[in-house]
Design brief:
Layout lengths: L9 H11 L18 H7 L8 E5 L4 E5 L5 H5 L3
Antiparallel strand pairs: 1-2
């Protein structure tokens, strides 16, 4: 799923996170931005995530670094 929450409002995002994501296949790759899945919505879906990556583009070195966390690194480390 690429940017699944990009063009919908917060109510629909929460409905998708609370209802749809819990019933779909166990193998889903979801690409999102930090504006689509904010810290509140992340709390809703966090228990459904087995692995997360942050693709961070380094303009100085013109390469993408892969990190083992989501945008909310400090929150993810505390198990929100």
């Amino acid at each position: 799923m690429d940017t699944p929450f990009a063009r919908i409002d917060q109510t629909h995002r929460e409905n998708i996170a609370n209802n749809f994501l819990k019933t779909i296949s166990r193998q889903v790759i979801m690409l999102s931005t930090d504006s689509e899945i904010d810290s509140n919505l992340y709390k809703v879906i966090n228990n459904l995530i087995s692995k997360e990556y942050l693709l961070d583009y380094d303009e100085n070195n013109e390469k993408t670094n892969v990190k083992d966390n989501y945008f909310f690194e400090s929150e993810a480390n505390y198990g929100i």
